[in-house]
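Q: Focus on the chain.
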Amino acid sequence: MLMVTAIAPVNIAVIKYWGKKDAQKNIPINDSISGTLSTDVMYAKTTVYTSSTLEKNRFWLNGEEQVFEGTRIHSCVCEVRSKSDETLPHLTWNLAICSENNFPTAAGLASSAAGYACLVYALGALFKLKDELSSIARVGSGSACRSMYGGWVLWQKGTSSMSNDSVARPIASHEHWPEMRVLILVVNDNRKKHPSTIAMQNSVTSSSLIHYRAKDVVPHRIKEMHLAILTKDFRKFAEITMKDSNQFHAICLDTYPPCFYLNTVSQAIIDLVHAYNDYKGEHVVAYTFDAGPNACLYMLEPVLEEFTSIINYVFPQPADIHDNDYFRGLTLPRKPVDEMIVYDMDLQPYNAGKLKYIIYTKLGEGPKLLSDPKEHLLSEDGLPL
């Protein structure tokens, strides 16, 4: 019997991946760049178990058993095995896999990226695979390849007909820009109406804007964003991040039938960020939205306390939700909003409850193994604990 447990991070793209030229292999139509968030706050955890006596492959996600055979989970297992040492005694044994997220699944918070990155990392450890793993994680979920590294990560679309150069590459570590902070404003943590896999293929077949973006917009933005990260130019970083988020959601509307991911609260957050940037006279906060209504806000640490006070004023915490349930992640500095800011920005509070909760985090490292047996999600019989 062998068993390994790993955790892997969420990543939030600042230049979006949307659209595939090969849906089977998850080959994107454009490059993308993301920031990897700290596993101290948000992560997927996966335990992989194998034994010569295990009768069949089994997989559990967040406590519920799922289909294994013929799924992308199965594909990732096959990919790892195909690249592993054929002499390993346990290479052909059946597997029991148990995975869980400590954040909502399929709600536009990049759960699939963290989940597949974690699976592939754990499988790589189980089968002692030293090869580049991001191309295997990509088979499970495209953006999972970016969660194989910490800090700032570039996913290259690749040019090879065999797709072996569509891989993730680190741009800079999480320590490169230590002042960077992230607020995630969770508007809705329910499963999204339009699954990303289906929606992006609809975009590829029906939107003309998506092909213009991939050919004429993204290549230049990739170069600009790469430079902005290396030089720690937040103003340029923020401008590109927000423009790319806006264009991604414009593509969703240009898709036929359209995909609606943002809602009125999302739009109010966008308006507030622009109003605050105008008030400060420069870009100091950047929003980006993945395929869901939840806002990911990048900012530098000196701005955090003041902007958080504005968020808490405009979007009040419901009286019946405890602080520990509403403010999640790292300890968030909180103080009353400055009355002059309220006056100068003409801030108007909404009714309490527009936000479900707030997650405060920062950038972090890539996947890692957990050596403590208490962290395992499976028993020595290969069943969920």
User: Anything to note?
Assistant: Residues 2-173+370-375 form a domain with the Ribosomal Protein S5; domain 2 fold (CATH 3.30.230.10). The CA atoms of residues 74 and 257 lie 32 Å apart.
